Amino acid sequence: MAQSPQDAASEINKLTALNQELENYFRNTIIPQLFIDKDLILRKFTPPAMKQFDLSAGDIGKHIDEISHHIRFPTLVENIQEVITSGNDLEKEIQTTDMKWFQMNILPYKIFNENRTNGVILTFVDITSRIKNLKEIELLNADHETFIYSVSHDLKGPLANLEGLVETLNDVAEDESVECKNVVNMVSISVRDIKKILNELTDVTRTRHHFTKGAERVSIENILEEVQLTLKDKINKSGAEITTEIQVSEINFIRKNLRSIVYNLLSNAIKYAVPGRKPEILIKTEKSGEYVLLSIKDNGVGIEEKQKKMIFSEFSRISTDIEGTGVGLFIVSQMVDNSGGKIKVESEKGKGTTFNIYFKISS
Q1: pTM score, whole prediction
Q2: What are the CB-based long-range contacts (under 8 Å, 24+) for 336-345?
Q3: Strand 280-288 to strand 241-246: parallel, antiparallel, or no bridges (unpaired)?
Q4: 71 — phi, psi (to 5°)?
Q5: Phi and psi for 354 in degrees, rounded to 5?
Q6: What is the 3-state secondary structure (H, E, C) of the chain?
Q7: Distances (CA, A) of 348 to 165, 285, 305, 345
Q8: What phi, psi does 108 have (nearest 5°)?
Q9: Contact criterion met (CB below 8 Å) for 211 and 257
């Protein structure tokens, strides 16, 4: 049945209204956008694209390679063709010839009823300020690293001298009073603590800047054996009972970092035991989606709800009554975060704590 003139006029009016809506969108959007067909011909662009990339009405109908603009980069044509062929979005960070940074999204323009891609839409979001901020942060981190290494280096000399003096005092104090021996012992403990803090500060810097080097296939069971051997005295003195349930035995990770994570968490599980209660620690591994989950559960003093948010902060301590520097959990958190993993804590005051470490399988 032929369409009546009224119906035809109505369809034309609808199409005209839709076209006007699209034109209004193109004119008023603040985002630079380019519309390129399957033959790589520029069909349309938004006014911000004209200002940002020096485009003009004369560029419409030209091949993308023929257009003089600021967004040239070597693989633009290949990237557009890749999206047309695959039908999948592509996102890139690019720098233009005027030194600005953009997040560029190449989106397929699809004709759904024909199940094909007829071109692409290029969208640009200015991220210059974000990149600038990141570079400033990198410089600050570099300064921080230099400062820590400088402090560590400058203090090691006097510290070595102090250690030598303590040894001399120990020899002299053999026949002296108990009080003198106690003073020498306290100085010795202080020297040990200073060395520990310096080493941990250096570890913090290494963790921040050198994490990605040296990942390998690591046996979790071997790491657990090594750590328990290192903590043998503490385990024996506390009477700690350690149980393991290993469903996943290997992960791809830096060996020394995994050892440090397990050492810190297991050491804390023993350290924060309830007085008079035998520490009971359960260590488990299992697959959890795209992660390998390592959980270390204890029956210790637990962590108050308000403290959970701060325990991974640098130099934060749960209790000042128990020996520590407040750096261990911060280092653990950095190692896990830098690998693309995550760490969660479950705890109830007086009943115990569980640390759940999620190692990304693809890391």
Answers
A1: 0.46
A2: 336/261, 338/207, 338/208, 338/211, 338/212, 339/211, 339/253, 339/257, 339/363, 341/291, 342/291, 343/312, 345/303, 345/308, 345/311
A3: parallel
A4: -100, 15
A5: -125, 125
A6: CCCCHHHHHHHHHHHHHHHHHHHHHHHHCCCCEEEEECCCEEEEECHHHHHHHCCCHHHCCCEHHHCCCCCCCCCHHHHHHHHHHHCCCEEEEEECCCCCEEEEEEEEEEEHHHCEEEEEEEEEEECHHHHHHHHHHHHHHHHHHHHHHHHHHHHHHHHHHHHHHHHHHHHHHHHCCHHHHHHHHHHHHHHHHHHHHHHHHHHHHHHHHCCCCCEEEEEHHHHHHHHHHHCHHHHHHHCCEEEEEECCCEEEEEHHHHHHHHHHHHHHHHHCCCCCCCCEEEEEEEEECCEEEEEEECCCCCCCHHHHCCCCCCCCCCCCCCCCCCCHHHHHHHHHHHCCCEEEEEEECCCEEEEEEEEECCC
A7: 46, 22, 8, 10
A8: -70, 135
A9: yes
Q: Structure tokens of 21?
A: 């809506």
Angle between helix 328-338 and 178-209 (nearest 10): 10
Task: Show the CA angle centred on residue 59, arms to residues 54 and 65, nearest 5°.
Answer: 90
Domains in the chain, please, with CATH?
24-126 (3.30.450.20), 128-210 (1.10.287), 214-363 (3.30.565.10)
| pLDDT > 60? residue 213 | no
For residue 221, give the amino acid letter. E
User: For 118-163, what is each residue's pLDDT tens digit?
Assistant: 889 888 888 888 777 777 766 666 555 555 655 665 566 666 667 7
pLDDT tens string 249-281: 999 998 888 888 998 899 889 988 999 999 999
- Asked if the model's pLDDT at residue 360 lies above 80, the reply is yes
